[in-house]
Design brief:
Length: about 180
Amino acid sequence: MNRAMIGTLVASALLLLTGCASTTAPIGAKRDVLVHDSEATISRFQVNDADMDRFFKRSYGYAIFPVIAKGGLGVGGANGRGLVYEEGKLVGYTTVTQATFGLQLGGQSFSELIFFKDKIDLNHFKEGNYEFGAQASAVAVTAGAAAAADYAHGVVIFTITRAGLMFEASVGGQKFTYSPITD
């Protein structure tokens, strides 16, 4: 497979995903569900690893994605919606899309928690066009995993698998949007 073909496949997957993750803020009951699910997901991260508390205490802010759905068959993608907190206060909404290519088959859902070391790192995220390249790595949360984790380029990423099974040896990155709370 040549580079042009790979680029076309990745671009197609991104176009599909862009339509799936709306950047508009949820309203009413959908907002309440997102807040509830986010709080429950944070509790799940903390229960799975008590060392996670050090990041909640020391980080300037964080983004929480209760559910990111992912699937692939050669070309894959993922998307989800979450919340952004600054100094413990809810400040906005975020979406994530991901496109991957390579050897992959299946589907899964997972939760993701991104901590921002300081105000500069969070503000960069809040500019609304933030990306993690294929080289970014996440820590799968198990007991004690957060104790060994540290920031890389001002962020640290944690994930917990929710459901599904996916075989994957692929390359891709994540792209995020941000919209502030206006009400």
